Amino acid sequence: METGPTVHASENPTGRASYRPLVLVVDDDRDARAIYREYLRAMGCRVITARDGGAAIDQAVLRRPDVIVMDLAMPYMDGLTATRHLRRQAPTRRVPIIALTALPTSRDSARQAGCDAFLAKPCLPELLWWEVRVLLSHTPSRRAASAHEPAGEPPRPARPHRTA
């Protein structure tokens, strides 16, 4: 189990001091994964990573992250294809996805694939953290949502559509 600082209540969208969101960072660039992983951990998140879309799908289904940060241009399986797969699977259908890419013309494609937000690279880690917090503030926690969901069904938080 990963350890790290707790998200400060003032920055925690749920108000629970012990809440540590799980973020999946998907990028084929090792340095980008490391920068975003370390920054998000410093902000109190638990972070898992994947280097392509196929690995992202596997990690998302297995670990059920609270938010996914998805690069769009990757070898093997790109982020758009991975996002479409995630949106078709019950366990990941409602997980917020942030498209993070150096392809500025991909905004519309990212929205059509199911991304909830779009950030252009290079992206300051502070801006990414801001977007993660915004999406978390619009997404009820899985624990809270599970009390209102039928057994065996994933929670159904609203997917905000941001234009950030």
- What count of domains describes the coordinates? 1
Task: Give me the count of strands.
Answer: 5
| DSSP summary: helix tally | 6
End-to-end separation = 32 Å
Percentage of residues in DSSP E strands: 5-15%
Percent range of helical residues? 25-40%
Query: What order do the SSEs take from the amino end to the carboxyl end, as H and E?
Result: EHEHEHEHEHH
Helices and strands: which structural class? alpha/beta
CATH fold naming: Rossmann fold
CATH architecture: 3-Layer(aba) Sandwich
Q: Mean pLDDT, rounded to whole units?
A: 81
Strand order, sheet with most strands? 2-1-3-4-5
The CATH superfamily turns out to be Response regulator
Q: Over all CA atoms, what is the radius of gyration?
A: 15 Å
The major beta sheet can be summarized as:
5 strands, parallel
Describe, in plain words, how this protein is organized in 3D:
The protein is of the alpha/beta class and 164 residues long. It has one domain: 3-Layer(aba) Sandwich (Rossmann fold), CATH 3.40.50. It is 36% helix and 14% strand. Strands 2-1-3-4-5 form a 5-stranded parallel β-sheet, with helices on both faces. Helix 1 (30-42) crosses helix 5 and helix 2 packs parallel to helix 3.
Sequence-ordered SSE layout with sheet pairings:
Layout: E1 22-26, H1 30-42, E2 46-50, H2 53-63, E3 67-70, H3 79-88, E4 97-101, H4 107-113, E5 117-120, H5 125-137, H6 142-146
Parallel strand pairs: 1-2, 1-3, 3-4, 4-5
Task: List the main descriptive attributes of the protein structure presented here.
164 residues; alpha/beta; Rossmann fold; five-stranded parallel beta sheet; 5 strands; globular; disordered C terminus
